[in-house]
Amino acid sequence: MSNKSLETIGYYNILEKLKQCTSTEKAGERILGMRPILSEADLRKQLRDTTQARAMLELSGTPPIPAMEHVEEYLQKAVQGNMLMPEQIEEMGMFLIAVRRLKSYLQRGEEGRISLAFYNRNLIFPEELQEEIERCIRNGRVDDYASAYLKDVRKQIQFLEEKVSERAERALRTNKQYLNDSFVVTRNGRFCIPVKKECRSMVPGTVVEQSSTGSTLFMEPEAVANLREELEIYKIEEDAEERKILYTLTNMTAERETELLEDIRVIEKLDFMFAKGKLSLEMDGTEPKINLEQYMELKGARHPMLERESCVPLDFQIGRGIRGVIITGPNTGGKTVAIKTVALMSAMACSGLHVPCSEADICMQNQILCDIGDGQNISDNLSTFSAHIKNVLDILRRVRPDSLVIMDELGSGTDPQEGMGIAISILEELRKSGALFLVTTHYPEVKEYADRYEDVQNARMEFDRDSLKPLYRLRVGEAGESCALYIAKRLGFPDKMLVSAAREAYGEKSESLIRSMKLQGGSRKLERIHAPRIEKAAVIKDTMDTVRKFTRGDSVTILPDEKIGIVVKPADKNGNVLVQLRNEKILLSHKRLKLKVAAAELYPEDYDFSIIFDTVEVRKARHRMGKHHMEGLEIEVEE
User: Is the pTM of this model over 0.90?
Assistant: First the structure.
């Protein structure tokens, strides 16, 4: 079955939820590897296990399933001949106690004739091993009473440690004048007193360590050293006795390898089954009936990932003459959730799980095929529509009579007319395949398609026109109508525009809709709302436009002196004007000039301004050059 389809309908979310109900690692791994079952016998057994597990939970509460995190590892270590440490043996003992408790738990189920409880017969409780571990190991160490010899050795060790401490304290008091401090310290496992370096020869004993400054020597008094050697011998004997006991327990554990491995296997299996029972209780699920006749009937179905308080139960049936259901209705009306719920109920039931329904009769499917969401694939550079068509083609290649197909917004993502045609061609192919299929759409022509065939049926998601809220209820046998016009009217859409929209959408059929919506003669208009205006920038005339009014010969007033001059040359690109003032020419900013009398008013059109601006010498030179060429003669002209 397609992993992508299972992911799309939320199947893996259910597996994660189921995994959280487990105690053992192996059961969790098995759950994550679950897929819908294709063997009828196996599926019926799995469903019975789930039902029996839930019955046990309701009868006796949560089973005492141990985590068994390291049990198998420690067992293998024992079998290989490696000595188990006290804390490891203690963990094995806790596992055995859990086995005993689990057997007791299952025995209560046997009395109630719950078949799963008879797994109790497969659990083997090695009572002798558990009692020996309990007797010998306590709080992560070998207990004093593990053997009489160990008890005696530890008693001698305790006695000698007290004697060593007592003698060290006596040495401290005796040599008080030679010490830097008045307390006994431990260095390298020896009882020492802090002796001044210069008093080393005054205190009988062995230097064990020196302070960082070198001023203090930590010395083991001679009287203490004699007892310490005896104490070390006893500690060696203690270690040897502990090892003997640990090896004995390790060997006893290794000898029960077969029984313990069987216990581990049974507990992991029970953990898996009880996890399914816990999920059933959590979802208030029910055991679905299973059929091979390609029909489904759901009553009160709830999507398990939605809050129960906000989830509207779904009633749905397909098969028994109806192969396809076309669901229509407004956006956010719950169409997608509805088809996902149906597909998820099928996948859960075919995986041996209970389903959150009041009743369910579900057929086995060889595969669930889905096309939901835009499916856009950026890496393949596919558009939404391209990805949609690619997925649909894959579905049509795979579909078989015992498949379940769900498609959302069939034919969407392209030109409406062409999309409608593609949608109907896909429906026709699905109908011929013999598979069960559920599709959602907005196209009215697709609704009409269902009316052509007895084995295809319309359905709609109900919508409250007054509150503009979806009711999330599926009504099979009725085609859904678009609520867009009702929503638009409710939100203040003008009547005139609604009438126009209805006629464009439904043509001749629109009049009855217009009457039902009471749009005739409607006076509601579109109210204009004040909107801010764009402020245009003030038009600033180009400075040069102002300057260009000065032409050669203009009489101008020079500010601020109020002197009168005549323009020799109009303004340059920097706005400077050449002005003749009496017998000199001055370059002035146009801003200092004010037109007094324009040249056109003072002089004839063809007036020769050289009379005003040229010197007598320049005028004579011009005259001579006008008659013939004058070698070396130049005239400088004001530009």
Answer: no
